[in-house]
Design brief:
The protein is of the alpha/beta class. The chain is built from 14 helices and ten strands. A five-stranded mixed β-sheet has the order 2-1-3-10-4, sandwiched between helices. A three-stranded antiparallel β-sheet has the order 8-5-9.
Length: 329
């Protein structure tokens, strides 16, 4: 059963804000009777580039579905849009499955990406942190509490035998705020996108200390979600969309140069950096969308560790595999 909020007045107040904000989204983007509306929390992130590649290369049209991209300005706004049926599908994080456990009207419909190859931990290039052991007891920056970067920082601490609190995450917001804190030594380091980490390393600002894909054997970085309305009313379109998505992943594996070109246009990350990191990141993408039980178990524990949920939920209630391409089942 979904986990219920123990503070009904607070829950109603929060729901009111969500619906009000989502109403604005609906006004800005009226529902389309034909196109499947796909939401991205951020526009310039490599994880979500397959949507753009699939659209440009006609992967979704080939399967008989038209899609429309919505860039929503953050995970919270994406949740609002899904709740209010302002979008049909959301490309989100693995930890966002916790919203389903809280009763959000949606389900995960495909495991999108697994191990955190996208993430790295950076420190000052010539700063005092020379090895992971030097991080013990130090403060590191994350964008906000409760997300993947915080979990990765705590997992790094656990792997060193320091427990989850051997490194202290500090939410500092934007990348620019975090970089400023790193440069001035206010924090010892930060988990960040591998593309940004590589760019900082090339600029001589920072040094990559850890590639999380090398040390975290099991995880679920990203999940594709659909709201209850789309699940009920547009099941065939969801199947067609996922078929196009996995065709796109297969295309990207075989056509690096063209995929890098489109990724450069979408993310604005320099071509040489995308070209350098592309092969390192591509293994994170799932070829079939199946939900790995081991990765789900890790996520379930993370919900409690990050104070997203009071207890571990029944993960089988948070997703469905019925829309995956037949060959993937």
């Amino acid at each position: 059963m979904p986990i219920r909020n123990n503070h009904p007045s607070k829950s109603r107040w929060g729901l009111g804000i969500i619906l009000a904000a989502a109403g604005c989204l609906i006004a800005l983007h009226p529902a389309s009777a034909e196109k499947l509306r796909i939401g991205k929390p951020q526009g310039e992130v490599f994880s979500f580039v397959p949507l753009n590649i699939g659209m440009e290369k006609g992967m979704f049209q080939k399967h008989g579905v038209e899609v429309e991209e919505y860039v929503l300005g953050g995970a919270a706004k994406q949740q609002q849009a899904l709740t209010a049926d302002a979008i049909d599908v959301g490309l989100g994080s693995g930890p966002a499955l916790s919203f389903v456990a809280k009763g959000a009207p949606q389900l995960g419909i495909a495991a999108m990406a697994g191990k955190p190859y996208l993430m790295a931990f950076v420190v000052q290039k010539d700063g005092p942190i020379k090895t992971v052991a030097d991080l013990k007891g130090k403060m590191v920056s994350v964008s906000a509490p409760g997300g993947v970067p915080e979990w990765l920082a705590r997992e790094l601490s656990r792997q060193q035998g320091w427990g989850a609190d051997g490194i202290t995450p500090l939410g500092l917001g934007s990348d620019s705020s975090q970089f400023a804190a790193l440069r001035t030594g206010q924090v010892a380091g930060m988990p960040t996108d591998i593309f940004l980490a590589t760019k900082l390393e090339k600029e001589g600002v920072a040094r990559i200390l850890v590639r999380f894909g090398d040390i975290v054997p099991t995880f679920m970085m990203h999940v594709i979600f659909a709201n209850d309305s789309a699940i009920e009313k547009r099941p065939e379109d969801l199947r067609k969309f996922l078929a196009g998505w996995f065709d796109t992943i297969a295309y990207m594996r075989k056509n690096k140069s063209e995929s890098v070109r489109i990724a450069n246009e979408v993310t604005r990350v320099p071509l040489d950096i995308i070209n350098q990191v592309f092969d390192e990141v591509m293994p994170m993408f799932s070829d079939d969308g199946r939900f790995d039980p081991a990765a789900l178990a890790v996520l379930s524990k993370s919900f409690v560790e990050l104070n997203l949920l009071p207890t571990e939920p029944d993960m089988t209630k948070l997703y469905t595999e019925k829309f995956l391409p037949v060959a993937a089942k």
